[in-house]
Every structure is written in structure tokens, then in C-alpha cells.
Amino acid sequence: MSKFNELLTVLGESNGEYPETMLDDLMSAYDFDIGIFTQQIETLEAGSAELNSQIAALKQHNYDMLMAAAASGTGEPEGEPEGDPDEDIAIDGLFEEEDN
After folding, report:
1. 38 and 27 together in one domain
2. pTM (global) more than 0.90
3. What is the span of the domain harbouring residue 4?
4. What share of the chain is helix, strand, coil (3-state, %, to 5)?
């Protein structure tokens, strides 16, 4: 970091303003190549697009499976549930042991 501050001191004027070419000078001093970052961004964006397409395909497959299960009737329980649906059960009643 001191090298960076030293370079700013050399480039800076006494009133704190810097020349218009300061960014270019800093980039050349540190061999800053924006092309490397552009390539990395493009690679990551391509990977992201591929993953998004895989996610969309999996969602479609899942939806198709749900629709097929609903159409075949395997998703619904068969028969009537046991017991009276109007019967009120208290919480304590769920934990009581039945006498046999």
C-alpha cells in the first residue's frame, strides 16, 4: 500500500488535485489489464447461464412428474379417513394411553 501512496504523492499536485491521466498512469505502473477481468466475468456469466438453464429444466421435469402423479391418481390417499372428522381431540388426549 505504501507504494501506491508514494505513487499518488508523485502524481498529485500540492493542492490535492490529480492529473487526468492518473488512472492510466496507475494502471501502467501496476500492469493492470482489464482484459483479464473481462474474460473472467464472461466465463462466470456463461457458467451462470448454463446453471440457470439446468435449473429451469429440473423445474419443468418436476412439474411434469407432479402433473403425471395427479393424473394417475397416485397422489391422493384412497378411501375415507378413519374416525369421525367432527370429533374434537385435545392435546392431552393425544398423549393418553388407551386401555385395552
Report:
1. no
2. no
3. 1-32
4. 60, 0, 40
Rounded Cα gap, residues 96 and 89, in angstroms: 11
Are the CB atoms for 57 and 35 separated by under 8 Å? no
Pick 52 or 69 by higher pLDDT: 52
- Domain count for the chain, please give it: 2
In a domain, 47, yes or no: yes
Indicate the Cα dihedral angle 38, 41, 45, 48, nearest 10°: 160
36-59 tens-digit pLDDT? 788 899 999 999 999 999 999 999
Max avg pLDDT among 17-21, 60-64, 71-75, 81-85:
60-64
Do 23 and 43 fall within a single domain? no
Crossing angle for the helix pair 2-11 and 22-29, to the nearest 10 degrees: 140
Same domain, 38 and 24: no
